[in-house]
Amino acid sequence: MMILSSLPVGAQRAQHPEIEISRNTIREAMEYLASDELAGRNTGSEEIDMAASFIEGKFNEFGLKPYFKTYRDSFAIGELQAYNIVGVAEGIDEELKDEFIIIGAHYDHVGKIKSVNGDEIANGANDNASGTVGVMELAKYFGVLRENKRSVMFVLFSGEEKGLRGSKHLAAKLKKDGIDLYAMVNLEMIGVPMKDKDYLAYVTGYENSNLAKKFNEYSYEENVLGFFPQAKQLNLFKRSDNYPFYQEFKVPAQTICTFDFSNYPYYHHVDDEVGLMDYEHMANLVENLLPGLMKMSTTEIKEIKLTE
Ligand SMILES: [Zn+2]
């Protein structure tokens, strides 16, 4: 029997209007992160530093604590200085707060690439300003509400496009610190909806754990997460920041995504711009991730497990 946690999202919001997930707050953040001013958020650039400061400001506003001395978890890629941004909504249960759920997305992109019609900035709106903003919206909800029993760590990774460097760095560091990681959920390319599916988003590594099944049980909408055959064929499980956490901890660590290879032609392209993002879809997806994630943070035992 599951514990019935807290109030439904609507009732919580009546008490805390500031946790509304709205198209407008999403649009605002997207328009900044994917602006030409930020020049494609290349790891090590001055512009990605502006993105990092922006995220830190939001984490601070939402009441998240830095996990390390500051929100920045620094690492180097050769000469390049890079930062993951790490904030925590500490759990409110004395025992469960030592267990962690990580919710992450990469905020770096590829900077300037081959020019098309005079545009050389790969703005990375879908890849992955969308996931970044999704994580920030979730962070706002958890940070303001403070009902999670387990601790929830929000991470925006750098160096993903250079080979999952930020997540490899952080996973190894947290493993060395000996944290008790329950699960890791990563958001990638959630700016455009999939067509003709009976679920909102797919999870990579679907068959590796009961995450999707449990998540759907925890949710009001039956099918939030589903199985997407191409994700398995292409082994997307190993292609984003979830994977290093699986490797280090051997716990469920999976990516939630709505890019299905036919709904968006601008992967790593200068036309990956905010004008093509569907904010209604993003808000709806984030909204539907809230109950499942909150429930993950409150169940008495760790119900989500790797497949035996
Ligand atoms: Zn990406």
Characterization of the model:
- It is built from 9 helices and 11 strands.
- By secondary structure, the protein is of the alpha/beta class.
- The chain has a single domain (9-296), classed as Zn peptidases (Aminopeptidase), CATH 3.40.630.10.
- The strands form 2 sheets. Strands 1, 2, 3, 4, 7, 8, 9, 10 and 11 form a 9-stranded mixed beta sheet that branches. Strands 5-6 form a two-stranded antiparallel ribbon.
- Helix 3 packs parallel to helix 4 (125-145) and helix 5 packs parallel to helix 8 (243-249).
- The longest helix has 21 residues, at 125-145.
- Mean pLDDT is 94; it is low at 1-5.
- The structure holds zinc ion (ZN).
- Zinc ion (ZN) binds at residues 106, 127-128, 160, 188.
Which helices and strands, and how do they pair?
Elements: H1 9-15, H2 23-33, H3 46-61, E1 65-66, E2 72-77, E3 80-89, E4 99-106, E5 112-116, E6 119-121, H4 125-145, E7 151-157, H5 165-177, E8 180-188, E9 201-203, H6 211-218, E10 225-226, H7 229-233, H8 243-249, E11 253-257, H9 279-296
Parallel strand pairs: 4-7, 4-8, 8-11, 9-10
Antiparallel strand pairs: 1-3, 2-3, 3-7, 5-6, 9-11
Bound molecules: zinc ion.
Zinc ion is lined by residues 106, 127-128, 160, 188.
